[in-house]
Amino acid sequence: MCDKKKIMLEDFTEENRASAQDYLCPICKYIIEDVYTDTCGHSFCKECIFPYVTENNKCPVSQNELDVSGLIKAPIIDSTIHKYQIFCPNKSLGCEWIDYITKRSTHLSENCPYEMENCLNNGCTCKFLRKDRLEHLLICDYSLTRCELC
């Protein structure tokens, strides 16, 4: 199972997929996040390139010598990528959300009806889709109930 935080080429709408292909990180093969470029002009995710260069002292694409001082933040590439619209990673489960990359984490953490949640009742270890929360709470053995005698 892939990391839902990472954005894959398949997450892009059909009209954006071809353009987005230019923004795949050569190390992790996902869409580049927090973009840094090297002295050769290659672009990478910050979390991918810094450890790689620290350990190998070379560009992973050209194999040219490189140290971290040769890495430059590339906000213009970040802003270009953020203009694309993508699908929810839960599309295969039925989520119909399509919006800009920058809105994805909020959608997943707060709104997506197809995101997995843990029951908040003490002692319950059940997991369910957000859309099924109310149904679960009605049958949860750990739900607090009002005592009819009080």
Provide the gyration radius in Å: 21 Å
Unreliable residue stretches: none
Largest sheet: 3 strands, antiparallel
What would the principal axes of the Cα set say about the shape?
elongated
Query: Numbering strands along the chain, what is their spatial order in the largest sheet?
Result: 2-1-3
Q: What is the helix/strand order?
A: HEEHEHEEHEEH
- Kindly, what is the distance between the CA atoms of the first and last residues, rounded to a whole number of angstroms? 49 Å
What is the number of helices?
A: 5
Q: pLDDT average, as an integer?
A: 93
Q: What fraction of the residues are assigned to beta strands by DSSP?
A: 5-15%
Helix content: 25-40%
Q: Could you give the count of β-strands?
A: 7
Query: Structural class, judged by helices and strands?
Result: alpha+beta
